[in-house]
Write a structure and sequence with these properties.
This protein has helices spanning 10-13, 44-49, 72-86; strands at 3-7, 22-27, 33-39, 63-68. With 95 residues, the chain is an alpha+beta fold. A four-stranded antiparallel beta sheet has the order 1-4-2-3. Residues 19-92 form the GIY-YIG domain.
């Protein structure tokens, strides 16, 4: 599947593909993962905008990396695996 990394701002998010479900990682300037999430097809950009400053689920970060998946269930499984391995600061632990 396709992976893409962009700046975590409005203009960076606007160029992300939105045609498949995706797992995303919000990263710090040093490359550490602050948060891992899933977005449904057609909602990738919108979901990530919710994490920007003044969004309803603000998460600090400088870059976002997405990986497109074939299905939402595949994306959820990958998200769970990444969270259990990396334990991102802003994910609720025990998920």
């Amino acid at each position: 599947m396709g992976k893409k990394t962009v700046k975590f701002n409005k203009s960076g998010l606007d160029i992300l593909p939105d045609d498949k479900p995706a797992v995303y990682k919000i990263k710090t300037d040093s490359g550490n993962t602050n948060y891992v999430g899933v977005a449904k097809r057609g909602r990738v950009q919108e979901r990530l905008q919710e994490h920007l400053p003044r969004g309803k689920d603000y998460i600090p970060g400088l870059k976002v990396e997405i990986e497109q998946m074939d299905s939402i269930s595949e994306a959820c499984q990958k998200e769970s695996n990444i969270i259990s391995k990396t334990k991102p600061k802003y994910n609720k632990q025990g998920k």
